Amino acid sequence: xxxxxxxxxxxxxxxxxxxxxxxxxxxxxxxxxxxxxxxxxxxxxxxxxxxxxxxxxxxxxxxxxxxxxxxxxxxxxxxxxxxxxxxxxxxxxxxxxxxxxxxxxxxxxxxxxxxxxxxxxxxxxxxxxxxxxxxxxxxxxxxxxxxxxxxxxxxxxxxxxxxxxxxxxxxxxxxxxxxxxxxxxxxxxxxxxxxxxxxxxxxxxxxxxxxxxxxxxxxxxxxxxxxxxxxxxxxxxxxxxxxxxxxxxxxxxxxxxxxxxxxxxxxxxxxxxxxxxxxxxxxxxxxxxxxxxxxxxxxxxxx
Length: 303
Prior knowledge:
Blueprint: H1 7-14, H2 27-31, H3 38-65, H4 67-71, H5 80-83, H6 88-106, H7 111-129, H8 137-157, H9 163-187, H10 205-228, H11 230-236, H12 245-261, H13 268-274, H14 276-294
């Protein structure tokens, strides 16, 4: 007879804190000027929930597949399956529930969105079982997940998404991905050539620092070019979106500082949600974008 499991470990198995990443689904809603359209909001919310449930499904599969490695990790051994709070069979049952709920949520949505969501699921399955051990490709698969979110959000509400915005999403996700690897090396420096996650043996701190520099530069440049692109200016009827670049710059610089001085970046979600300067910068960036986009830049003190 299977033992009962409390609700707490099951919720932790879903990793709801990681759902923060799925906010990228709402980017097309904001930048397509559909934020205050109820029908579009509802569809975008369905897309967000579908990505959350799909992501949680992948986390469950990953936790079951990596249970032995997680038990050897100082932090991951606390995960519900690795710690024994949830059995693999119970995890599989929860997985089946999530898949059924996701199918019900996406029923009737744009086929392109369903295709993107399916591709996101398959890419991450490939990551969990093989690609996470391939140098560079491990981070690129994670970055692809963010692009799937942006494209999925656009397809869900049937709007076009700027190529610059897709590029910016790619670079920022690569930056965060390499920062995560850097954080993992920082908390377990002996992994370079030692034991633990296989792919970490192929990385070095200096190599990752170079990759982060390239990704950080790509993030800032692609975002700045997006704000001054003719299509952007024509769509939003303002050239003032360029002012929001300062928040992107500060956020990137602050994150690099955290990479060099703390171990927070081993979990990017924790770094983004617990570091007050990054939290405030993110809020100011979102607020300034919404105000400029939906007021067509009519802010007197900005000229």
